Amino acid sequence: MSAVLASLHLLRPWWLLLLVPALLIWWRLRTGHDAIARWAAVIDPAILSALAIGVKGRSRLLPDDLLVAIWIVGIVAVAGPTWRREPSPFADARPPVMVVLKVTPSMKAEDLAPNRLVRAVQKLSDLVTAREGASTGLVAYAGSVHLVLPPTPDKDVMGAMAQALSPEIMPQEGDSLAEAVRLASTVLRDGGKGGSVLVMADTIAPDQVSLLENQGGSGPTFETTLWAALPPSHLDAAQDLNTGASALDASLQAMTPDRSDVDAIATRLDRATAVGDVTGEGERWQEAGYWLTPLLALLALAWFRRGWVLGS
User: Fold this and answer.
1) What contacts 45, CB < 8 A, 6 or more positions away?
2) What residue stretches are annotated with the VWFA domain (predicted)?
3) For an engineered disulfide with 224, which of 88, 122, 202, 250 has Cβ 3.0 to 4.6 Å away?
4) Closest CA to 230 of 206, 254, 212, 248
C-alpha cells in the first residue's frame, strides 16, 4: 500500500484548476438558496427567527452540493490519477534484429537447393514472417560492407531488398564480416532499442576470425546468432564457422529442411534485450481515472429521486 501511495500522481494535474470555478459556483448557488439570509436584510433577526418555520429540520444536503460533488469527481477522473505502469502501445512487442548477410560467389553453391544465397533469403523471409511486427534491418557484405536497410517492421520491403542482392552487384569480392558486424551493432546502438545481430554466412575467412577476436570490448555488445548457410550434415566439419561463432560469442545454427531452425532462432531473438528495457520507450503510466465512473454513476442516481430537486 505504501508503494502505491508513493507512486500515486496525476497525469494531467492542470485539470485541477477547474476546481476553482466549481467551488465558486457552488458557493454562489448555496448562498442563493438560503432564504433566511435574504430576508435578514429587511426583517429584524428576532422577528425573523420567530417567523421561520421548519428551517432547523431541513436537510443540509442540496442538489447544488451533489452537483459540485459530481463536478469534483469528474475533474479528478479527467486529471488522470495513476499509480502503476503498463507497456506502451507505441513500443515494439519484440526487440529488433540486424541481419548480416554474406553475398559472395561461394553463396551460389547448390548444396542447399536452389543455392545457398536463395535459401538464406527464403529463410530470412520465413523468420521475418514468424516475428510479425518486429523490426528487421539488413547489412550485406562481401569485400565491402553496405547498409541495405535500417530496422523496419515492413516485411515486404525487407523481402524485396534481400531478393535483389547477388554477388554480381557487390563492388568488391572478399570477406569483411568483422566490419559488417560492427556496422550492424552501430545501427542497433544508435536506434537505442536493444536487439540482436544475426549473421547468415557459409564460410568465415581466417583473418576475420582474428579481427573478431581482437575486437574484444570494442566488438558487438548485442546478442549474436550465426545462421550457417550450409546443410546440417556439413556443420560439424565447418571449422571456420565454429571458430567464428566462438569469436563472436554467438549461437551456431544450421539451415534445416524444415522450419525448426526458423522457430529456434525466432525464439532466441525474442529473448534479446527488448524495447521495454529502454527508459521511456517500453512503459507508460496506466490511466486509472475510469475507476471513478461508478462513483459518478452513483452520485447521479440522486437526481432521479422524485421531487428532490424541486422540493429543495
Assistant:
1) none
2) 97-202
3) 250
4) 254
Tens-digit pLDDT profile for residues 157-196? 999 999 999 999 999 999 999 999 999 999 999 988 889 9
Question: What is the residue extent of each domain of the chain?
Answer: 2-84+286-311, 97-277
274: cell is 527488448
Grid cell locating 258: 524444415
Alpha-carbon gap, residue 32 to 23, rounded angstroms: 14
Rg (C-alpha) for the chain, rounded Å, is: 35
How far is Cα 80 from Cα 12, in angstroms, rounded to an integer? 6
Cα separation, 241 vs 109, in Å, equals 16
Residue spans of the chain under pLDDT 70? 1-5, 31-42, 44-62, 86-93, 215-220, 273-283, 303, 305-312
Strand segments, DSSP code E, in the chain are: 9-10, 81-82, 85-87, 97-102, 136-141, 145-152, 196-201, 223-228, 251-254, 283-285
